[in-house]
Every structure is written in structure tokens, then in C-alpha cells.
Amino acid sequence: MSTSQPGTPPATGTSGAVWQRPVPSRRELNRDIALGLGMAFAGLVGTELAKATSPGAVDMGAGGIEAYLLSAAIPLPLCFRRRYPLAVLLVVSVLFFTAGERVPFAFAGNLVTQISQFMALYAAAAWARDRRRMKLTMVVIFIGMFCWLFYGFVKALQTDAIKGANEGMLSPYVSFVLLNTALNVLYFFGAYFWGRTAWGVARQRHELEQQAIELATQQQANARRAVIDERLRISRELHDVVAHHISSIGIQAGGARRVMESDPEAAKNALGVIEDSSRTAVNEMRQLLGMLRAADPDLDDEEFGVPAGKAPQAGADRLPALVVSATGEGLSVGFHQIGQPVKLPETISVSVYRIAQEALTNVRRHSTARSAHVTLRYLADTAVEVEVIDDGRPKHAPVGSRLGHVGIRERVSLLGGESEIGPRPVGGFRVRARIPLQPPPPLEGEPQS
Questions:
Q1: How much is the average pLDDT of 307-332?
Q2: What's the whole-model pTM score?
Q3: Can you tell me the distance from the alpha carbon of 78 to that of 444, in angstroms, rounded to the nearest whole number?
Q4: pLDDT tens digits for 70-94?
Q5: One domain, residues 154 and 31
Q6: Residue 328 confidence (pLDDT) above 80
Q7: Are the C-beta atoms of residues 411 and 229 closer than 8 Å to each other?
Q8: Number of domains in the chain
Q9: Does the keyword Transmembrane apply (predicted)?
Q10: Domain check: are 298 and 360 in the same one?
């Protein structure tokens, strides 16, 4: 018999041999209780109606109430059909057999009795957590029931109880045997296979839910990894951009100190350069300050597998070289520049290059495109825009995690810009980023430079 109890954790295996169906919820248990009590009442009513419509006197069993008692007792165990499915099946089967032997009138004329046995078989196949014990119990029940059915056939033959018009191809007795055998096969095996199908559906649903949870967790981890990798790369590039400003400040400060007394005008010019360099460095650092503050200070490059060495410095002026290197192996890449070029802050210049580089990498790896085009737009003195378009579509093979797009959006957002990434209405794919040349306004409460 099943020994599962509420609160028992299900096995974590996903194969049919090890997976155990989770125990029913409190709501399902309450429904079973209501079902068992309702069917017990229906059994009493059914027996009374059958008695009232019987053409002659009927045997109601011991004391004239045995038929009523068995009619109510057979469905009552269904109150626990999901909590103790194998125990319920055994009890219902014993009562089912007892009713058939003691009060055939209540057994044959009460439909509730037949339904109760069917539901007990179904519940055992659908809810038994020990599948080997369930199958063994089913074998015992089936053998017992069909032996009982065979005994009934033999008894009917001995007493010549089967009568008929004898006008068919087969004799009344043979027809009776075949018909009842077929009905019982459908009855018992139908309940078993229906219940086993319900168990398989529950297992599949559980596995899908587990896979969905795992995929969601993996997606969150990948997204966090992408953001952290981008932050680490931006922080290194920020160091490269600001380092030369700090070096210039140090050199100018040293020179000003040496000529402060002998050449005040030269010292004044040096101090002016120091002021300009420091202001530029502060403005560029502010663009990434919010993101870098949010990063965990204990994280380092090695923890996430990022090489400790610095990547080669790149900028918007190197886009033509990038286009040349990306051309080849079936992909033709063009380049076009619009507007009067202006000197870009180092952080923006590097970001323009990285965005184009990532977009072209995605075109080559994940698209069927045969051609692509990079456009660099200088929008007066207000913003710079880089756009990469192609004429392809995603490959049928897995197209990656799109973490590169996450990094592009993160980079553009930190610079106060806007990004547009997605398919084009006329076909192909577009990656476009517009970055303002002026730094975003400081956050409320942040000191002005």
C-alpha cells in the first residue's frame, strides 16, 4: 500500500523510473472527501431506487440493510483516493467483491458501485508514488477479478442460468461470455491506462516547470554576467581614457612648480592646462560613475574569466580599419561618414568603435547577410551616431544569447544616449546608437565639477 504523506518532497529525477508525483494539495484532498461522501449518499439513493423499481422481491442482505451498507461503504474510501491510492484500491476491491457475492442486487443494479471501482483503479494508476508496488497491486486485482468473472461463467453454465432466443450466430451462453469479457477488459484496462496517462502528463508538466525554472535562472545569470563583463571592460577603458589626463596634469604641475618664480606667465599657462585636463577627466568619469558605484568592489576580472591584460585602445577614427578587417569570407562591409568630424571625448570614441565591432561580429556569427554597412554620423556639435545595417536574417541554428545587445544597451545608456536594435521593416537587421557629446547632467545631490 502507498505510504505517501502530505509534505513528503517529490524525487528530483526526471525519468519515469525515479520520478514521484508530488503529494496532492490540501484543496485536492478536500475535494476527494467531498467526492467520497457525495458518492456514498448517491449509492444509498441508487440502491433505494433500484429496490423501488424492482418487479419482485429482492434480497437486501442481512437485516434488510446490508445492501444499503455496502452501497455506501464502497465509495467512502474514495475520500482518500489521492492520499492513499493503493490502500483505497484494495479496500474498494474487497468491498466490491463482497457486494457481488452477498447482495448481487445492489451490486448489479447500482451504477455508483461500478463507478467507484473504476475511480479506485484510475486513482491508483494516476497517483501511486511507488510505481512498482502499484503494478504489483494491479496484477493481483486484475487476476482476482477475472478469476471471479470466470467463476461466474462456470456457475452460470452449471445452473443453465443463461437463456435467450438462440437466434444468433452464437449460443446465448457464448455470446454472454464474450460480451461480459469484452466489457470487463475495457472496464479494468481502460481505468488503468487512463490513470497511467494522467500520471505521465503530470510528470511531463513537472519536468517542463523544472526546465522553465532552470532556463530562467540561467538567463538571469547570463544577463548578470554580460553586465558585469561590460562594466569591467568599460572600467578598463575609463582608466585608459583618464590616465593620459592625469599624466598631463602631473607633468604640467611639475613644470609650473619649477618656473613659478622665474616665469610666472608660463606657470599660469601650465595651471590653465591642468584646469582643463582635470575638468575633462571629471566629466568623462561622471558618465560611468553611477554604474561603477553599483558594481561589487570585490569583483575582479579573474573571477569571471576576463583577461587581466588591457585590450588595445580603439576609437571612432579606426572604424575604416575595422570595416576592412570585417570584410571577407562571403561578407562585404561598406563604410560611410556623414557630417563634419569633431574631436570626440575618449570614452565616446572608444564606445563608438566597440558598438560597431560588436554589431559586425553578430552579423558574421548569427546572420545570413552577404553585405553590411557602417555609417558614422556627426550631428553638428550635439551628438554622434553609429549605425550598422545588414541584408540578412537570423540563421536557423541557435542564434546566441543576445548578450552582446545587452552590453551595447548598457554602454549607450551609461553615456546618456539612445540605442535601437532590431529587424528592419525592409529586411535585415539594424544596430543604431546615438550618444550626446555633452555629458549628462549630474545626479541630484552630486557635486558640480
A1: 74
A2: 0.50
A3: 67
A4: 888 989 999 999 999 999 999 999 9
A5: yes
A6: no
A7: no
A8: 3
A9: yes
A10: no
- Positive or negative: CA dihedral 141, 146, 151, 155: positive
The rounded distance, in Å, linking the Cα atoms of 440 and 289 is 12
Contact between 394 and 431 under an 8 Å Cβ cutoff? The reply is: no
pLDDT, residue 430, reads 93
What pairing do the DSSP bridges indicate for beta strands 383-390 and 418-423?
unpaired
Q: Which of 420, 421, 407, 414 is nearest to 436 (CA)?
A: 414
270 and 330 together in one domain: no
Which pairs count as long-range contacts for 22-25, CB under 8 Å and 24+ apart, including other chains? 22/206, 23/83, 23/129, 24/82, 24/83, 24/127
Look up residue 61 and give its DSSP letter.
-
Segment 409-415 shows an average pLDDT of 85
Residue-wise pLDDT tens digits, 153-204: 888 787 777 776 666 677 778 888 888 889 889 989 999 999 999 998 988 8
DSSP 121-185: HHHHHHH-S-HHHHHHHHHHHHHHHHHHHHHHHHHHHHHT-------SSS-HHHHHHHHHHHHHH
Task: Please give the pLDDT value at position 4.
Answer: 41
User: Considering the domain boundaries, does residue 52 fall inside one?
Assistant: yes
Please give the C-alpha separations between residue 425 and each of 84, 161, 372, in angstroms, as whole numbers.
60, 82, 16
Helix runs in 341-391, H state only: 346-366
By DSSP bridging, strand 371-379 and strand 332-338 are parallel
* Domain span at 52: 26-161
In angstroms, the CA 14 to CA 214 distance is 13
Residue 184 lies inside a defined structural domain of this protein: no
Q: Is residue 311 part of a domain?
A: no
Decide: helix, strand or coil at residue 386: strand
List all residues 6 or more positions away from 428 whose beta carbon is below 8 Å from its beta carbon: 369, 389, 390, 391, 392, 393
DSSP-assigned letters across all residues of 234-282: HHHHHHHHHHHHHHHHHHHHHHHHHHTTT-HHHHHHHHHHHHHHHHHHH
- Cβ atoms of 407 and 229 within 8 Å: the answer is yes
Q: How many Å apart are CA 410 and CA 402, to the nearest integer?
A: 13
- Mean pLDDT (whole number) for 7-21: 53
